[in-house]
Amino acid sequence: MANLKNSVAKNIKTKVAGQTQDDVVYCHIFDAILEQRLPPATKLNEEALAEIFSVSRTIIRRALLRLSMEQVVSIRPNRGAMVSAPTKEEAKQIIKAREVMELAIIELAVEHATSAKIEECRRLVEKENEAFDNGDYGKGLRLSGEFHIKLAEMANNAPLLAFQRSLVSQTSLLIAQYETGNHSNCSQDEHTQLLDTIESGDTEQAISLMEEHLSHIRSKLNLDSNAASNDLHVVFSDLLKNK
Description:
This protein is mainly α.
């Protein structure tokens, strides 16, 4: 929670036109989850958040409820809220849903793309590349997710956009929880290639590139083998059997 507190700007109550306090709190927590400053299973104490954001607990509850509807926060009776921690089976289901969604989105994006939308995405990719080059993995990951949300906006389909936003944030949780080895980013060139193909109007090639891109994301997640345990009895179970 300290990471979140350090990330909140001094002018927290300054809002973009039309934004409510609920929106401000929601956006800050959502970004902190996307940037992995709030890792899976982090408890989200209402009282602490109310103090951090200088708002009432009612506003905090509304923001957390919105996040729970996007399945990035879990709210349990008598236990409060926490950042969701998907199981491996849930993770596989999320990835499968993402694959179905992305292929539909990329096809529609080719159909509805405009020069202005493509240029906006290119600027986003430049910022993403800069973040990764500077070693800011959390920011790079958030911008990478935003790229896929922008593609959904380009597809000009509101329901797909809503689902995509939730799936992108859930994928960030999976990466935080299940990514193997050192942080790496294979998406920089792939995002540029996707935009080039969208701009060319080649739907078949765009779908093929997206399939390859999603395969790379999937390959970075350890969803098949058993995770290491921090339970000493589990770690040394063989020794205990011989006692």
